[in-house]
Amino acid sequence: AELIDVPANQLIGSAFKNLGLMVTINQRLDFDQIELLLDEFGFEAVREEEYGADMEEAVEADLEADLQTRPPVVTVMGHVDHGKTSLLDYIRKTNVIAGESGGITQHIGAYHVELPGGRSIAFLDTPGHAAFTAMRARGAEVTDVVILVVAADDSVMPQTIEAISHARNAGVPIVVAVNKVDLPDANPMKVKQDLLQHGIVLEDFGGDVMSADVSAKRGLGMDELLEKVLLQSDILELRANPDREAVGTVIEAQLDVGKGPVATVLVTNGTLRVGDHVVCGMYSGRIRAMLDERNRPVAKAGPATPVQILGLPGVPGAGDQLIAMPADRAAEIAQTRQRLEREKRMRIKSRGVKLTDLSKM
Ligand code: GTP
Ligand code: MG
Hints:
This is Translation initiation factor IF-2. This protein is of the alpha+beta class. Helix content is 32%, strand content 25%.
């Protein structure tokens, strides 16, 4: 609203009237929505090119022969109270296959679980569509598979439908977790039929969307769910090159009193090592230490591995990209990004002054 000099409530009105979007003033829109909305006001949305982001391509495309299978990255979505947090908690705290407890206790934005047969899955522990949409709006599309949680006693609800459309827009396949099957009034069949109305055709109905009946509370069906996620990821043939400089995405970051800036980064390609120089958002630095989700130090992290990194001089934003590169290049890019950011802020500020002046006339 600020940038195009249109009152916020007018934008909200137009979103509803012309696009059928019910939005609030502090809601994030994704890029596609912004594009449509701005079009109504005669503006063109242009995705901001991040200075130095082309480094990834500059680092030589991977050769077919260097690509190896990598684990899937999974996000959990679903309607309020349908059990997203319970599902993630169960997986986080339990060695799912052995059914033992005693896993990760702290909250970090991403963790990975090892499964029998040497396979693993990376979970983004940022439930809710807002995080997914915010990351996408920043051009960071890290999710390979969405687990759609639908409570069997409540079936398909508005945010279930919203999650389906988010996953669809992002081109990410869904695996359905029909949750709370332990409840007496659970009706998994109704869930499956209702999903049909929204174009989700489960295998039971001859479609290709996999599902598992689960109880996140009791731990029922959870290994089957994870197996289906692995099957779905096999179809995607997810691959990466572990033998190259690391590229990653910041999942969350904060200032830790003892450790300084700490960022949870999902390595998306290459291998990140302690001692690497990186540019990450507006900052450059040397990786001083890396910790896994159990706070244990690790020396390196390969594709689809989440790690907490220490050593950045500031706190990057969620969705920021991390690239390992020589120290001088990293420093140069970080400096330029900081300058561009300062200039952008100045522009917005001076526009604000102009607006105030006009309103006084
Ligand atoms: P929001 O974050 O508020 O959108 O909810 P959520 O989707 O994360 O749901 P959450 O995991 O907080 O679960 C909501 C309620 O359902 C809690 O009271 C859970 O204990 C309960 N619940 C979750 N999974 C199950 C289940 O498998 N069976 C039963 N009986 N209850 C469950
Ligand atoms: Mg929750």
